[in-house]
Amino acid sequence: MAARPRFTSRATVLVLVLCSLVAILAYPTRQFISQRAEISAQRAKADHARQQVEQLRRDKARWQDPEYVKAQARARLHYAVPGETPYIAVDPAGQASARPSSSAGAPATGAAAGQANAAKPWYAGIWDSVDAADRAAPAPATPLPLPPSSVGDTSPHDH
After folding, report:
1. What is the pLDDT of residues 127-159, one digit of tens each?
2. Distance between CA atoms of 97 and 72, rounded to whole angstroms?
3. Element (H, E) at 43
């Protein structure tokens, strides 16, 4: 008796058709899944943007209230109503702990520095940065030589 072949021609054709279908549908399926993920990400982004718009609308409505504007001017800019005497309480212990004693020229770090900076008005922070910039660049020990100058030459080109 002759041995029957393991796969018939029909089975071989069926396997080839199934493999072809898998190969043909793999890329579109991957694209579909990728696009669905992208759509989901865009929807989340749009929801986040809507929430930001709502928050900004609430902030805008708050800034339309003159009392809120006055309160913000007092808190942020240290403004006072005419006739009032504004006071800013300074804690000497807080300032001493804001600057480490081991490095007098180094800026303060840590939670104490954040609290000390938050208590200062904005213009004090600017002035402190000017002072820090002045300390950061020491003056040269010897004066730098001046470039040769030609008397009477007022042209803007380099010599």
Report:
1. 888 888 888 655 556 665 666 655 555 555 554
2. 29
3. helix 9-63
